[in-house]
Each structure stands twice: as structure tokens, then as C-alpha cells.
Amino acid sequence: MTDSDDTNPYDTTLNNDDNNDEHTTTAVEQDFSSSVTTRDEKHPDIHDEDEEQQPSLVNDKENDQTDDDDSSSDGSPPELDRHHHPQEEKLPQETHEEEEEGSFWHRFSSIPIVQDSVGKVQQYPLGRYALEKAETTWTKASTQAGALPYAQAYFEKAGALGCLSLDVLEQRFPVVYQPTEQIVDTFLTTVKAPVHHAVSLVDRFWWTNNSRNKQPDDPLNHLSETKALLQETAHHIARINDSLRGWTTCVASQVGSQLKGSYESTQAECNQRILELTTELVTKLDSASAYAKTVSIPPAIQARLEPLVAFYDTMRHEAVKEDLSPLQKASRMVILTQSCVLPALQSSIDGIQEQLKYYTTMSKGSIKGQLNSFGIHASS
Fold first, then answer.
1. What does the alpha-carbon distance between residue 236 and residue 238 come to, in Å, rounded to a whole number?
2. What would the mean pLDDT of 8-15 be, rounded to a whole number?
3. CB contact at 8 A, 140 and 51
4. Of 133, 10, 19, which Cα lies nearest the Cα of 79?
5. In this predicted structure, what is the pLDDT of residue 232?
6. 321 partner at 20 to 30 Å CA-CA among 76, 118, 195, 265?
7. Radius of gyration of the chain (CA)
8. DSSP states of 221-233 as a string?
9. In terms of Cα–Cα distance, which of 58, 62, 72 is closest to 20?
């Protein structure tokens, strides 16, 4: 047997195996897709149960592929099967690992600052809960997308767009892929450098300015500053004095106007009241004089009332004067009343009371004598 004879059977067998695998895989995928689509249209409520049954369907598909591979060997040499199947199992695993390493989420999670941020978030219960929920959601979405080809295409486009964004970020901001501590140190160094430079410039300028100001004419400068301070203080004192004088004048004018108005109103009321009292006094004196003239008074009482009649003439003369103000009239009448009228009235009242007692005793005695003369004994 030649080399070509040795090679052809194996090549034919490999080709047959590949064709059988492709036909079998395609048929299983079509059956699975049609069953999933029909099931979703008829029973949308049991979608969660299908998610649990999908792994079993995939396992059945793998078992069918293994059975087809075994049946398609048709007595091929065992060595060929041992060399063929490990190669088929190894290639998809390596491709999956390469795709996983080049995916958007793998690249994004490999950024140091993102890793540190996730670590900080995981230190808190709420952050851990949020990350676990996000991971669970992404796992479910990936599982469903793997069973639906059209969804897988959209996921691939989204991953490609995310990878493109990471490429642009890496090109324009390569510092993002450095360790977080190095980024912080670089930022602090970049910020502190201008600040230190500015502080050094200020210190240098301040030292130069102080050295220039330290001249022999320091006493003269001190005196000029003191003079300016004293002038400013005097100006403030003068301004305060003017303000105080204006305030005092304003308050005095307001108080004077208020007092003047109050005095005028009070004076008018007093004059009116004095005029009323004077008129009333003159009227009462006239009535008393007329009563004294019309009524017969005993000589003893009349002798005591003569001083009052003389005083009446004086009081009336003072009340009707035209050249005196009402206040002056009232003051004179009060003085005359206190010095003349009140003592005369008091003495007259005392004399009248004695006369009344005398006449009362005399009348009682005369009445008792008359009763006794009639034989009637009256008690005292």
C-alpha cells in the first residue's frame, strides 16, 4: 500500500465526519430554534422553565453529536479517533478563552481604577448586593442570547462598540491603565508643583520688599504713619461730633414743639376752667348777697356776716377786672380766700353753732315751762 492509499481513507473519513457533524448540528439547532419559537408563541408564561431546560437540550445535542461521530467512524483506526476528537475539543475552548480575554467586560474590568472601585464598593453590603444583581442579570442575558442567534449578533455589536471606545480611551488617556496609586501620586505631583513654585516666588518677592523697606528713614515713615492715623482719628471724631450735634438739635426742637403745643393747649384749658369757676363764684356770691338782704337775720348773726359782705365786694372787684389774665385773677382770689374768707367763715360757723345751741336750749326750756304750767310733766 502506498502513501496515497494510506492517506485517502483517513481524509475521506475526516471529511465524512465533518460533514456529518455539520448536518447534525444544523438540524439540531433548527429543531431547537423552532421548538423554542413555537413554545414562546403558545406558552409565554413558561419562559423561565425553558431557561432551566436549555442546558439539558444542549447536553442532548452534544450527546447526539458524539453518537454521530462514533457511528460515522465505520471502523476507522482507533489512532485516528484519538487524534481527531481531542483536537476538536481543544480548539473551541481556546477560541472561547481568547474571545473572553478580548471581550469588552474583560478589558473594562481589567482597568486598575475600575478594580479598585469595585473593591471599595464590595466593602459595603448594599454595593455587594448591587454587583451580585448586575452579575446575575448579565449571566441570564448572556444565556438567552446564546440560544437566540439574532440576539447574539446585537451583543457582539455592542461588545465591538465598547472595545472601540476602550481603544480610543487607551490611545488618548493611557494613564488610565496605570495603577491607581501611581495615578494619584502623579496627580498630586502635577498639582503641587505649580503651588510650590508660586509659594517660592511669593517668598522671594516678600523678602525683597522687606529688604527694600528696611531703610534708614524708618523713624520718619513711622511718624508719617502716626500723623496719618491721628488725622483720620480727628476726622472721625469731628464727624461724630457733627452727627451728635445734629441729633441733639433735632431732639430739642421736637421736644420744644411738643412742650409748646402741650403748654398752649393746657393754658387754654386752664383759662377756660378759671373763667367758668369765676363766673360761678360771682353768681353764687350775688345770690348769697341777695338772700342776705331779703331775709331778716338776728343782730348777732348779722354782726358776724358783715366781714363776709365786705370781702364779697373785694372778690367781685377782683373777678371783674379786665387788665388781669385769668391765671392772675385765680391766684389773687385763692390768696384772698385762704387769708380772709376761710377764717371768717370758720368763726362765723362757730358763732352760728353757739347761737343755735343757745336758741335750742331756750326753746326747750320755754316749752317745758309751758307744759309744767298745764300740769304736764315733760321729760328732759
1. 5
2. 40
3. yes
4. 10
5. 85
6. 265
7. 67
8. HHHHHHHHHHHHH
9. 72
User: What DSSP state is assigned to residue 216?
Assistant: T
pLDDT of 58 reads 40
How far is 103 from 97, CA to CA, in rounded Å?
10
Cell numbers that stand for 331 in this block: 391766684
Residue owning grid cell 475521506: 12
Cα–Cα–Cα angle for 123, 127, 130, rounded to 5 degrees:
150
Plot region of 375 (φ>0 → left; ψ -120 to 50 → alpha; else → beta): left
Number of H helices, E strands in the chain: 12, 0
Query: Given CA atoms 349, 351, 354, 360 in this order, what sign does their dihedral have?
Result: negative
Residue 11 DSSP class: H
* pLDDT over 60 (residue 190): yes
SS3 state of residue 73: coil
Give the span between the Cα atoms of 340 and 338, in whole angstroms.
6
Is residue 127 within 8 A of residue 121, CB to CB? The reply is yes
The domain ranges of the chain are: 1-101, 261-373
- pLDDT at 214 (0 to 100): 52
Smallest CA-to-CA distance from 104 within 152, 58, 28, 165 is with: 165
Q: Rounded to 5 degrees, what are φ and ψ at 282?
A: -65, -40
Type of residue numbered 376 = I
- Distance in angstroms (rounded) separating the CA atoms of residues 369 and 66: 174
Grid cell, residue 174, equals 493611557
How buried is residue 50: exposed, middle or buried, by Cβ count under 10 Å (0-12/13-18/19+)? middle
Which percentage of the chain shows pLDDT scores above 90? 0
> 58 vs 25, 46, 196, 375, CA distance in Å?
11, 19, 66, 164
- Are 54 and 147 within 8 A, CB to CB? yes
* H/E segment holding residue 297: none
Distance separating the N- and C-terminal Cα atoms of the chain:
194
Return the top range by mean pLDDT from 27-41, 116-130, 257-271, 309-323.
116-130
Q: Which three cell numbers stand for residue 83?
A: 487524534
Model pLDDT for residues 294-312, shown as the tens digit of each residue: 767 667 667 766 777 777 7
